[in-house]
C-alpha cells in the first residue's frame, strides 16, 4: 500500500493510492496515519479493505507528510562511503546518529524556508524507515520486522549551523521545513529489497546526487538494531538513513541553495518530491503534532 496524508497544513486527512493511481480518502476508516495505525496487524486490516468504494480525492490536492505524531526523528550521518569522502570525514566505525526535531517535518512539495542568515543551505536525498512496532535492543535478524514502511526524505541541512556552531548536528538539521517526507509511506511488503533502491536529486534540473542503497555502509537492519540498543523505538518513529555523494558541501567550489532554487528528488518505488526554496518570511508556520488524540485508538 501507498499511504498518504492530504489537505491543508495541520488539517491533513488519511488516504491511500489505488491501483489506478487515484487518491482514495481513508477518513471514514481511520482518523489519521500515526503510531496507532502502523502495526503489522493494523496494516493487514487496511490492506484487506475494498478501497474501490472509498471517495476519490482530487489529484491536485496538497500532500502532507505521510505519517503524523512522529515522536523521534532520527538521522544517520555519513552512511555512504563516497559521501564521507566528499565531506572530508573518515568512514565511521559505528553509525553516526543524530536527531532532527520532529517539528521540521513537512510535506513533499512544501516550500523550504531559507533561514534569513543562512549561507550554507544544502540538500540530502535519503530513504527513511517508519517504525511500526515497539523495538528495544532488537536483533539485526529481526530488525526489518518492526518496519511499517519506507519513504523518501529530504534531510535539508544548514552546514554552518551543523558544523560551525559548537557541535551537535541537530542545530543544522531541524528548522521548520527541513524535513520533507513522502509523497507516500510505502508499506514494507511492497519494498522487496530495501538495499537495492536507486536514489537521486536535482537542483534546478541539474543532477547532483545519484546513488543506490546497495552502497550503504550500514544497511537498514543494522541501523535499526544498532539504534534500538540505545533507545526504545516506538511506532511512528522515523529513521532517515543517510545520503549518497553529491551534496553542495562536497562540490568544488561548494555550492549552496538560494531563494528561487528548485530541488527535486526521488527513489525507486517511493515517488518524487519537489521543493521551492523561499525566504523564511514565506514559511507556513505550523505547530508540531505532538499528541495523538486519545479517541484514535492509540495503545499508548
Ligand atoms: Zn542526512
Shape: globular
What share of residues is helical?
Answer: 10-25%
Which whole number gives the mean pLDDT?
A: 93
Q: Output the helix-strand order.
A: EEEHEEHEEEEEEEHEEEEHEEE
Query: How many strands?
Result: 19
The helix tally amounts to 4
The low-pLDDT segments are 294-300
Counting helices, strands and paired strands, the structural category is mainly beta
- What would the CATH topology be? Fumarylacetoacetate hydrolase, domain 2
Bound molecules: zinc ion
Q: Can you tell me the number of structural domains?
A: 1
Architecture (CATH level 2) name: Alpha-Beta Complex
CATH class equals Alpha Beta
Taking the alpha carbons of the first and last residues, their distance comes to: 25 Å
Strand order of the largest sheet: 4-3-2-1-14-11-10-17-5-6
Q: In oligomeric terms, what are we looking at?
A: single chain
CATH superfamily: Fumarylacetoacetase-like, C-terminal domain
What fraction of the residues are assigned to beta strands by DSSP? Answer: 25-35%
Amino acid at each position: 500500500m501507498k499511504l498518504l496524508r492530504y489537505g491543508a497544513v495541520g488539517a491533513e486527512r488519511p488516504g491511500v493510492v489505488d491501483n489506478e493511481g487515484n487518491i482514495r480518502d481513508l477518513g471514514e476508516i481511520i482518523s489519521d496515519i500515526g503510531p496507532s495505525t502502523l502495526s503489522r496487524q493494523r496494516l493487514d486490516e487496511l490492506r484487506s479493505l475494498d478501497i474501490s468504494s472509498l471517495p476519490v480525492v482530487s489529484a491536485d490536492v496538497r500532500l502532507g507528510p505521510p505519517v503524523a505524531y512522529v515522536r523521534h526523528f532520527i538521522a544517520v550521518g555519513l552512511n555512504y562511503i563516497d559521501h564521507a569522502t566528499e565531506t572530508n570525514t573518515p568512514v565511521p566505525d559505528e553509525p553516526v546518529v543524530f536527531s532532527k526535531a520532529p517539528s521540521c517535518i513537512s510535506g513533499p512539495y512544501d516550500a523550504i524556508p531559507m533561514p534569513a542568515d543562512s549561507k550554507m543551505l544544502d540538500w540530502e536525498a535519503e530513504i527513511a524507515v517508519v517504525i511500526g512496532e515497539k523495538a528495544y535492543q532488537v536483533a539485526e535478524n529481526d530488525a526489518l520486522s518492526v518496519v511499517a514502511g519506507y519513504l523518501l526524505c529530504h534531510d535539508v541541512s544548514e552546514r554552518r549551523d551543523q558544523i560551525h556552531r559548537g557541535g551537535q548536528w541537530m542545530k543544522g538539521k531541524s528548522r521548520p521545513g527541513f524535513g520533507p517526507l513522502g509523497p507516500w509511506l510505502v508499506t514494507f511488503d511492497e519494498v522487496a529489497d530495501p538495499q537495492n533502491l536507486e536514489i537521486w536529486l536535482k537542483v534546478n534540473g541539474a543532477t547532483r546526487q545519484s546513488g543506490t542503497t546497495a552502497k550503504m555502509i550500514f544497511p537498514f537492519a543494522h541501523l535499526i538494531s544498532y539504534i534500538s540498543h540505545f533507545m526504545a523505538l516506538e511506532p511512528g518513529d522515523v529513521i532517515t538513513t543517510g545520503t549518497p555523494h553529491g551534496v553542495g558541501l562536497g562540490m568544488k567550489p561548494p555550492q549552496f541553495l538560494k531563494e528561487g532554487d528548485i530541488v527535486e528528488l526521488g527513489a525507486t518505488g517511493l515517488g518524487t518530491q519537489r521543493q521551492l526554496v523561499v525566504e523564511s518570511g514565506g514559511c507556513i508556520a505550523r505547530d508540531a503534532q505532538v499528541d495523538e488524540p486519545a479517541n484514535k485508538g492509540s495503545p499508548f
